[in-house]
Amino acid sequence: MVKNRQPNVEVWVGETPPTEAELRRKLNEQGLSVHRWSNGPGDTYGKHSHPFQKVIYVVQGNINFILPERGEQLNLNAGDRLDLPKDVAHEAVVGPQGVVCLEAHQ
Question: CA-CA to 59 of 20 to 30 Å: which in 3, 10, 13, 41?
Answer without folding.
Answer: 3
